[in-house]
Specification:
By secondary structure, the chain is mainly alpha-helical. It contains five helices and no strands. The longest helix is centred in the first third of the chain and has 18 residues. It starts with 8 loop residues before the first helix and ends in a 17-residue tail after the last helix. It holds the Pfam family HTH_3.
Length: 111
């Protein structure tokens, strides 16, 4: 199994594509049947399975049509491992990202 922590974006896309294809085949679905269930084109399913290329919305629709939505539940969940991280996570929920400074703020010397 591919370790996503050391993989490139293309490798992860290929791995996810292979997993989706395996799920489809396990359920005995043709690409056209899955496309119909997902509300996407057959070309979208083919591209997704071939190289992992898709919009995120199409990916979610295919995942839903395969009944794999629960597998998305843990994607991008913030894991808190210390009290400091918990406090930082709480602040992040209440705050915006810091703004970039406008210019250098240094006064220009007079001539």
């Amino acid at each position: 199994m591919l370790d996503f922590g050391f993989a490139t974006a293309d490798e992860i896309a290929q791995e996810l594509a292979a997993r989706l294809r395996a799920a489809r085949l396990t359920q005995g679905l043709q690409q056209s049947e899955l496309a119909l269930r997902a509300g996407v084109s057959a070309g979208t399913v083919k591209a997704l399975e071939k190289n992992g290329q898709s919009t995120i919305t199409s990916l979610i629709r295919v995942v839903q049509a395969l009944g794999l939505t629960q597998d998305l539940q843990q994607a991008f969940v913030l894991e808190v491992r210390s009290i400091a991280q918990m406090e930082q996570a709480q602040r992040a929920q209440r705050q915006r990202a810091p703004r970039k400074p406008k210019g250098s703020g240094a006064a220009k010397p007079e001539a």
